[in-house]
Amino acid sequence: MIEVRDLHKSFGRQRVLNGVNLQIQTGERVVIIGRSGGGKSVLLKHFIGLLPPDSGQVLIDGQDIVPMTERQLLQVRLMFGMLFQSAALFDSMSVAENVGFALRRQRTVPAEEIRAKVAEALGMVGLEGTEEKKPAELSGGMRKRVGLARAIVYRPRILLYDEPTTGLDPIAADSIDQLIVRISEKLNTTSVAVTHDMRSAGRIGKRIFMLHEGRIHTVGTPEEIFSSSDPIVSRFVNGVADPKEHVF
Amino acid sequence: MNRLGWLSEWMEGLGQLTLLAREIVFSLFTKRLSWRQVLYQIYFIGIKSQSVVLITGAFTGMVMAAQTYFQFHKVRMDTATMAVVSVSMCSELGPVLTGLMVAGRVGAALAAELGTMRVTEQIDALRTLATHPVDYLVVPRMLATLLSMPVLTAASISIGIAAGYVIGTTYLDIEPAYLWHNMVKYTLPEHVAEGLIKSFIYGGIIALISCYKGLTCREGAEGVGRATTEAVVFSAITILISNFFLTLTLNRVLGT
Q1: What is the ipTM for the molecules in this complex?
Q2: Closest partner CB to B127 (pick from A50, A85, A151)
Q3: Which pTM was predicted?
Q4: A246 inside domain
């Protein structure tokens, strides 16, 4: 279970998280929505200890990870797999080297087994036979798939997705959404995705959290969120700008 | 308060640099090293820097021989020319110029590489894959720079002296036997040791500052550019300042 208690985070004078509280149950598939620059990715990075909060607690299976050192966090992170917004593939390595990275670093898995697990993970994301390619040779959607294969190859219990469909065409975005659902069901993982793409949120999430002004504003099932009468939620879902918000 | 902002920023940077140094030492002695990574970095940092270091060494040795001869000739001390060139190359010019050239070539590359990895989230990806960036990225680069610098410096010193000797005996027409005799007489093993110790320390300075600048790089192309420039400038200035204090300290310790 992931639990966040009264989480605060500022960058300089900009307050990004202003007392976030949430609970995600084991095996759940949730989506965190909110406006661009609203702190969704910052919140997600706190789950895995990539950013230290100014105050508050992040409990993973009841254990507070905030006071941990970077080296202690490395052990906790073995539970997690994360897909980054830009996929963040290591550009000096081939696809196979990227996907097998975590297994190679463990130094206990034989090379033959690593090859088999890499091929299996690539098969799960529909990229069989791309082992020798370099990240620069792949399209945006393929890079995300390789990023996902790299995140699932060591069978983590929790999968985090940072804007999984941003920058993809609608068809590629749909296939990534389907992949996220399929993998979460097949591997029985807890999945947390952050996105501002409402179609994607509706497809992936069984429960949706809306982050607004540094706090969790609303929680509900996709149906509840899409039919919400709350003006903030409704405007976001329907993509209607606040009349008070002057762009020009 | 704003007027002191730069001071607190500078002090914070110095503190972070110290913490990075501590983490490197911890990793070096407690974590298993990837020798494949170290060898690749030795190839990039050491072998690929050879040409630039050798050219610098050779021309410095030649110009040093010519200038020393022009002055010494006035007081008929022509045959002491190579003694001055040799001692200067061993204890000062060899390590400092190699340090500056490596800071320019390797320091910039290290900061740009790590900086780009940071802004493209590759360093965060490493961390999520349970890998400490210091273990995987910094330690092999630090070790490779530490091992390469004394070798590069020795090569620079050797070619500088050889080039100076050739210029002395041919173009400047100095008596070879006396030139050689005086050079060997006044160049002590301590001078060579001084140069190699300095080069080892400069290797540490270049790798530490450049990796730090890369790891703490700000967002975007501008951030990477700035980190790269600062890595080279700070490495070069630190080498020049520390050279003065190292010269005084090593002179006392080695008796040069």
Answers
A1: 0.90
A2: A50
A3: 0.89
A4: no
